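Hey,

The postdoc asked me to send both predictions to you directly instead of through the lab channel. I've kept everything plain text so nothing gets mangled by the mail client. Protein one:
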Amino acid sequence: MLTPASAAALPMGRSPAGAVGGLGDGSATIGLFSREPSGNKHRDGDVTPTAAREIPGKHGRADWLGCGLQRFFLFHMHVLSPPHPGSSRRHEAEHHTHSEDDPQALLEEINDLKKRGLPMSGAQLKISANAHVVMPYHRVMDQLREGKRANKIGTTGRGIGPCYSDKVGRMGIRMIDLLNPRVLKAKLADNLNEKNDIFVKVYGFKNYDFSEIYKEYLKYGRRLKPYICDTALYLNQEIKAKKKILFEGAQGTFLDIDFGTYPFVTSSNATTGGVCSGTGVPPTKIGQVVAAFKAYTTRVGEGPFPTEFDKVMNECIRSKGHEFGATTGRPRRCGWFDAVLARYSVIINGATQLAIMKLDVLDELEEVEIATSYKYKGKFYKEYSHDLDVLAHAEPIYEKWPGWKSSTREVRRYNKLPLAARCYIERLEELLGVPIKYISVGSKRDEIIIR
C-alpha cells in the first residue's frame, strides 16, 4: 500500500553500512537475515520495501551466482539474498513468531530455489516453531468475507487476515503443532467444528473434510521439520556470539495494523516495533534503523492516496518503475513523494538513516513535486491524520522542484548526480530530518550511491 516506509534494523553496535554492504557492493558483512512480518505477501509486497530488499533490483531480489551471471529471484515468502560470491560468512534466513506461513506455498518456493541450485537446508532457513499456519479454510474465508463487504479493503485473498484472527482468538495452529499428530488432530477438529458451521450457515459454502486436511498438514510438517526451531533463542544466541543480523520489514509503515491507514492495512505490526514482538529479540539489542522510501509514492489495492497521479502519469511511472504487485501482479497506484506520511513513518520507526530507492524512475521529468502538507475544509495539516476523511479528500500542498532530465543510471558518486537531483535529495533529507545514506539508481547490485 502506501510507500513510506519499511525499515531494516541492525543490532546494537553494528555498522549500518553492513545492512547494505552485504547486498549492494559485494562485501559480505551480514551473517544472518530475519524477516518480519512474513507470509505469502500480505498485499503484493507493495509499500516501500526495505533497503536490503530493494537495493538489488526492481524485479525481485537479485543474486549473483557464479561466473558473473546475474539472476533475479522474485520471493514471495523468503528473505533477502542467498550468499554472494566471495562471501566468507554463512547467510541464514528465518521466519519467526510474528508471522504466518502457508506451508504449501513455502514448500513450493523452497523447491523452486533448490532447482535453481541454491542450498536450502536447515542451516540456511529457519522457521519459527511459533509461526501460525495458513489453513485451507483461511483462504476461502478471506475471499468470502471480502465478497460480502460493501467497502472492499483489497485483500489478496490468501488467508492472512483469518489466520491472524485465529491467532488472536487463541485457536490458531502453529508450525510446532504440525510436528505433533495428537495436538494437530485436536486443534483441527475444534476449528472445523466451528468453521464448518460458519461456512454452511452464513455463506452457504461446503463443509471441509477433517481427514483430508489432517493428512495433508501432517505431511507438510514432516517436510518442514528440518527448518522448524525456536528462532528467538537462536537469534539471541547469535547476537551474543557477535553475529551481525539484519531484520527486514516485509511491509511498510502504513500497512501496520495499529499505525497504518486502517482498515486498508495488513494484519500485523509492520513497523520496527514488530521486530521485537515478532522475533523475541529485545529492543535493547536493536541499533541502527534504515528506513527505505521510493523517490515517489505507491499504493496497491484500495484506500486513500492523497498524492496519486492522474491516469496518464500513473501509467508512465508504473511502466518505468515496474510497479506491479509481486504476488498477484496487480498494478500499483503511483504518486508524488508524500513528506507528511514519510515524516510520521520516520518518527514511529525511530529511523537513524534513510535509503531513497528508484531515483532513476524520475530521470526524464521536467518537474518533480513533494507534498509537504494537506488542506482539508480550510484547515492545514502538516502532520499525518488518522481520519480517513482527511486522507481521502485532502488537497496536497506541493513544493515544485526542477527535474534533472538526464540519466542517473551510471552515477556511483553523490557529487556526480545532476544538481537538480541533489537538490531534490537534500530537500527530502531536510523535510524528514534524518540523513539519506543510500540512493538507488537502477536494478543492479552496483547501481547504488552510498553517501
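Protein two:
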Amino acid sequence: MNTKSFLFPTIYSALLIIATCITFYGGFTQHINKVTIIGWLLIIPFCVFAMLYSKKINYNNNIGGKDAVKEGLKFIVISTIFLVIFQSIFFTLDFKAYKIDFIQTYGLELAKAQVKNGNLKITDAQLPNLINQEIAQVTLFKECTSIVFKNLFLGTITSVITAVTLRAKLRG
C-alpha cells in the first residue's frame, strides 16, 4: 500500500482526536456529543477528498469505479483503526469513569423524572438495579464496535456514491 494512502486518514483521525481531547479535558463535556456527530459527518468530505487525491496522484485522473471504492474504503479502514486505538486508550483512562459517573448522577435524575411522569414503569426501589444494569453495559467492546459500524456505514455509502459520481463524470 502506498504511503500516500495514509495522508487523509491520518489528518481526519488527528483532527477528531484533538477535538475530542480538547472537548473532554478542556471541561466542555456537555458538547462531547456534538463533537462526535460533527466528526462522524466529517467522514464524508475527507473520504471524497481522499478518493479525488488518489484519482489524481495514483491513477493519473483515470480511475474505475471499483478502484475508487477501494480507495474510499482504504480511507475508512485506516481511519477506523486509528480511532479504535485512540478510543481504547481514552476509554480505559478516563471516559469509562466519566460515563459511569454520568449514569449515576444524571441518569438517576432522569429515571426518577420518568418514573414520576409515568413514562418508566418501575418503582423507586428498582431504580438502583436499573442504574447498575446501565453501568454494566458500559464496555470497551461496545465503544469500539460503535466506532467501527458508524464509520463503515457512512464510509461505504460515501465511497459508493463518490465512485459513481466520478465514473459518471468520466463518461460525460
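Summary for protein two, as requested: Residues 65-117 form the longest helix (53 residues).

Thanks,
C.
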